[in-house]
Amino acid sequence: MVELINKDANTMLKSYAGDTYNTAIYLKRCAPATHVSYMTTVGSDFLSDELMLRMGEEEICTEYVYRSETLNLGLYMVRNDHQGERTFAYWRDNSAAKQTLNVMNSDLKDVGLFYFSGISLAILDDAQRDKLFSQLTRLKAQGTKIVFDPNYRERLWKNPEDARLWTDKAYAISDLAFPGSDDHLMLYGHTSNDDIFQHLAPFNIANIVIKKGPEGVHIQSGGEYFIVPVERLAKVVDATAAGDAFNGGFLAAYLQGRDLTDAVAFGAKVSANVISYLGAIIPKENFNVTL
């Protein structure tokens, strides 16, 4: 999507962002030797051309980025308060990304890990969701690790029942999940980690990672449960991509064979770096975390 940040009363900063896109960028920055592809549909307008150029600059493979002749990029505007908290306005009803599985013209292949989110699901219609899960089922049978973050956005779903149905389908196929406490409170009414773990138990997810802010990161893996403390940042400039950046850093370490504790610590460092600057994707010169 096009990202417009309210810098002052008369000035907007333009960039490009989106939850899974942000994670892909930070994963690649943290692990440059890792081959990272992004799957979406963009338009044929100059903004889409600019986004494709940005992906090239970030060395993101665009083999699975498709073009629409009739639809363009979605757009959102974000305003930050003095604590870095955000207010959003969206224009994405006619986003090209909503047609990705309809225009997809080849199967995914040679995928070691596939990451998607609840937003990835929410913007698709049921027929396209079925196509996506057919792809994921095939990939999982070939050994691909499936990673899911529910990232629940109520306004994107027809109703909560529909959101719960497809979120549970995503959990059922996942090897690693990032269930958010706020997501589960809004979607399922869960008020504790125990509620979340109990809900996820039937899905046999190998690794579950719950980000709890100053309470640290709570992990369930291989029948074990533990908490990894994280340092709280004194000043937050823009919290827009905090979770996306954490996921990107975590996955970079995870793919390098680091244990879950190290992956969490590294993900937290990446997130802290990113939320110290304006925008979901911060300039490369300001990105100073190395794996």
Can you give a write-up of this model?
- With about 290 residues, the chain is α/β, with parallel strands linked by helices.
- It has helices at about 20-30, 45-55, 100-105, 120, 125-140, 160-175, 180-190, 195-200, 240-255, 260-275; strands at about 1-10, 10-15, 40, 65, 75-80, 85-90, 115, 145-150, 175, 205-210, 215-220, 225-230.
- The strands form 3 sheets. It has a 6-stranded mixed sheet, with helices on both faces. Strands 2-1-5-6 form a 4-stranded mixed sheet.
- It is globular and about 50 Å long.
What structural class is derived from the secondary structure elements? alpha/beta
Distance between the termini: 28 Å
Give, in order, the helices and strands: EEHEHEEEHEHHEHEHHEEEHH
**How much strand?**
15-25%
Tally of contiguous helical segments:
10
Largest sheet: 6 strands, mixed
Question: What topology does this entry show?
Answer:
Layout: E1 2-8, E2 11-16, H1 19-30, E3 40-42, H2 46-57, E4 65-67, E5 75-80, E6 86-91, H3 100-103, E7 113-117, H4 118-122, H5 126-141, E8 145-149, H6 160-173, E9 176-177, H7 181-188, H8 193-200, E10 207-211, E11 217-221, E12 224-228, H9 242-255, H10 260-274
